[in-house]
Design a protein that fits this description.
- By secondary structure, the chain is of the alpha+beta class.
- The protein has five domains: 3-91, 3-Layer(aba) Sandwich (GIY-YIG endonuclease); 102-243, no CATH class; 255-363, Nucleotidyltransferase, domain 5, CATH 3.30.420.10; 381-534, Nucleotidyltransferase, domain 5, CATH 3.30.420; 549-596, no CATH class.
- Helices cover 46% and strands 18% of the residues.
- It has 20 helices and 19 strands.
- The protein has helices spanning 3-10, 37-43, 52-59, 72-86, 133-146, 158-162, 170-173, 187-201, 205-221, 225-243, 295-310, 338-365, 367-381, 434-451, 466-479, 513-547, 554-564, 567-572, 575-582, 584-596, and strands spanning 17-22, 28-34, 63-68, 93-95, 102-105, 113-116, 125-127, 255-262, 266-275, 278-288, 316-319, 331-333, 390-399, 402-412, 415-416, 422-425, 459-463, 486-491, 496-498.
- The strands form four sheets. Strands 13, 14, 15, 16, 17, 18 and 19 form a seven-stranded mixed beta sheet that branches. It has a six-stranded mixed beta sheet with strand order 4-10-9-8-11-12, with helices on both faces. The protein has a three-stranded antiparallel beta sheet with strand order 2-1-3.
- Helix 15 (466-479) links the parallel strand 17 (459-463) and strand 18.
- Helix 14 packs parallel to helix 15.
- It is elongated.
- The model has no long low-confidence stretch (mean pLDDT 82).
Amino acid sequence: MFEHLKDKISAIPHSPGVYQYYDKTGKIIYVGKAKNLRKRVASYFTKSQDNGKTLLLVKRIVDIKYLVVDTEMDALLLENNLIKKYQPKYNIQLKDDKTYPWICIKNEAFPRLFKTRRVVKDGSKYYGPYASVKMLYTLMDLIKEVYPLRTCNLNLSAEAIAKKDYKVCLEYHIGNCKGPCIGEETEEEYNRYMDEIKNILKGNISTVIKALKKWMTELSDDMKYEEAQDIKEKIRSLEGYYSKSAIVSPTIHNVDVMTLVEDDKFAYVNYLKMNNGAIIHGYTVEVKKKLDETPEQIIPIVLTEMRERFGNEGKEIITEADVADDLPAFKVTNPQRGDKKALLELSLRNAKFYMLEKHKQEKVKNPDRNLERIMETMKKDLRLKEWPTHIECFDNSNFQGTNAVAACVVFKNGKPSKRDYRHFNIKTVTGPDDFASMEEVVYRRYKRLKEENQPLPQVVIIDGGKGQLSSALKSIDKLGLRGKITFVGIAKKLEEIYFPGDSVPIYIDKRSESLKIIQHLRNEAHRFGITHHRDKRSKNALTNELTSIPGIGEKSFEDLIKTFKSVKRLKEADPEQIEKVVGQAKAKILLNYFEKN
């Protein structure tokens, strides 16, 4: 099938670079990076390729081109640029909310600074986006208070100023502008302000304060006390703002933090930019997955985009993902404790809250899509071939080997279907044998469904781990249902998920909706089983006590249990109520018995 590409693949060098896949129309449908181009490209065309989405991509490839670069970091940057330029069909897409505001420093003589929601590629500098508009205005008010910038839209080129056609405005008269339009402020002096402002917007406030203190000292030494006092006021404003920043740790400088959570179609990547111990940017981006990309594939791409967008030049990345090989130019840190660990957890909470909010909105707007996402996630996590729209869960209960019962709960479309719940009294097992009890109830449940031609569940959850799972499978083999139902066991302590034949369990992400539904099933089965078990013990206790009284037979017992449910209620009942149920003579026998005992 791929004979026409074999020669081309064999000619690809073992070098870092970027590869591009083309379809029959000559359009780029995928761009990828690799530290070994030939090895990476060849991996797409192996027989062991089992990812359905990747196979669909491979079927459409008719041509391959590549670009060799010097380093893996160069490959990452080039990949990012090509994806943005061509937007290939099978590459991940960053779903960006274009309504977030930015601070723009205009590309012009005596640059203006203003808020905008449109990013125009005209050479201007953009800082943001700011998820908090309040934070943006706080920054702009601070800059306006400290620096006398122009607000007009006049053309302040050297030629225009030389013509002396402009007149100063009110901003000049009230001291908010130094009059560059009439030549009273040089471009060099103005640009000095802009350099400091850029540092503030990048979060380097301490650097600006240090430079201003040096300037203030120089002015004071030259006996320019009024100007030195102005600088002192600026320092005071900056220090006031800096003290109110979200300080995480004064020891953390110029660091990027990235975490990721995901569902079946999207990944939600949170990015925190740290400088001088403070979080100066927090941003969560939604990524549409195309080929079931892993976090290790997604984070480097999003990181490259975020660093370009926010203008960060730090060399340390804090993340949970194993991306050290993909980001060789950086120090990749996965902290286990301390301030950096707390920062990682903060980022993860932000990513998780963002995803949950999206799911809530989705549930309201499109309930069907919400169900699809949950079913697709469970299908992936439990290695199923179809959606688990019908799931059943079994749990055993006994007390010191007596009154053994079992419960079966049923979930349909991810929700409890309580009318389908079933209780089982253990009939063939003596003593506390959970394995044999599980074998019995599973056999009885699915023998009946099979005989009545009732639909079978896609998944059965066995509460108790490997032992109970093996016992349940014995019954399934007797019924000839092996392969028609997926059985999994869940061990309680560590939430280990066992599959038949696998000695090593899997651990589903604790944040996954799959695990939450499995836990809900297990807890519901336990609750339902315990309730039945208590009722049975209570009934047995009542039976033993009442039938031991001379004159109270089986028929009288049944009438009393239907009416009063328990010995306690019977003892508290009025004599007239008891007489109504069993007559005056038997009521007298009961009352005499309770009085003596």
